[in-house]
């Protein structure tokens, strides 16, 4: 469900869900001003609720941000100062300032098929400035399939194609990059191995 369309949950609602043994993260939540700028206040309120649930549960927050870089950086920086929580910038394709701000407070950046698109060199260059220890891979399935599958339904198996691009970005052997991103995932999503 899109962040702007999700029903408003309470911290208590989210904590009940987070207690399930198979729940390994909170979200996806965030700010999306691309089509839904008129709901900014509701989106911000929901984001704050999700942050508090992540803080209380100890589960990482999966964050969506589109055309909301300044507000997202401000909220995350302010909230992290109030108490730490793990977080990943899901399907990251925002600007350098949001990347810098979120990395400074301990967030991870997740690389999707967008990074493999031919016209995404600027995004690949941005990822190259991040510590490889803070990079994750994802599909965002069923959307954003990397080449040569672009425009088709994305599949989890295609993560390997994005991983090959990531390995090039960081100048690493593919197996080493895959092992690094797996270790990063395990470090952030600590509950996943037992789920």
How does this model look, in words?
This protein is of the alpha/beta class. It folds into 2 domains: 1-87, no CATH class; 107-195, no CATH class. Helix content is 43%, strand content 12%. The chain has 7 helices and 5 strands, in the order αβαβαβαβαβαα. Strands 1-2-3-4-5 form a 5-stranded parallel β-sheet. The longest helix has 18 residues, at 40-57. The radius of gyration is 16 Å and the shape is globular. The model has no long low-confidence stretch (mean pLDDT 95).
Summarize the SSE layout with pairings.
Elements: H1 11-18, E1 26-32, H2 40-57, E2 61-66, H3 69-82, E3 87-89, H4 96-104, E4 108-111, H5 121-128, E5 135-137, H6 159-169, H7 174-188
Parallel strand pairs: 1-2, 2-3, 3-4, 4-5
Helix pairs in contact: 1-2, 3-4, 6-7
Fill in the keyword field for this structure.
single chain, 195 residues, alpha/beta, 2 domains, 5-stranded parallel sheet, 7 helices, 43% helix
Residue share in β-strands: 5-15%
Total individual domains: 2
Class by SSE composition: alpha/beta
Helix content: 40-55%
Number of strands: 5
Unreliable residue runs = none
Report on the biggest sheet.
5 strands, parallel
Shape: globular
- Radius of gyration equals 16 Å
Number of helices: 7
Distance between the termini: 23 Å
> How confident overall, as mean pLDDT?
95
């Amino acid at each position: 469900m899109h962040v702007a369309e999700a029903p408003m949950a309470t911290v208590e609602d989210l904590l009940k869900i987070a207690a399930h043994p198979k729940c390994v993260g909170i979200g996806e939540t965030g700010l999306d001003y691309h089509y839904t700028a008129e709901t900014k206040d509701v989106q911000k309120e929901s984001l704050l609720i999700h942050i508090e649930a992540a803080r209380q549960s100890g589960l990482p927050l999966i964050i969506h941000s589109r055309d909301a870089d300044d507000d997202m950086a401000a909220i995350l920086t302010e909230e992290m100062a109030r108490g730490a929580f793990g977080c990943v910038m899901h399907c990251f394709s925002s600007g350098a300032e949001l990347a810098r701000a979120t990395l400074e407070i301990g967030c991870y950046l997740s690389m999707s098929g967008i990074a493999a698109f031919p016209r995404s060199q600027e995004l690949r260059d941005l990822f190259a400035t991040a510590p490889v220890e803070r990079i994750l891979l994802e599909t965002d399935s069923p959307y954003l399939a990397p080449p040569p599958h672009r425009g088709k339904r994305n599949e989890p198996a295609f993560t390997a194609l994005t991983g090959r691009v990531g390995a090039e970005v960081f100048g690493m052997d593919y197996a080493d990059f895959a092992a690094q991103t797996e270790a990063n995932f395990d470090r952030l999503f600590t509950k996943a191995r037992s789920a």
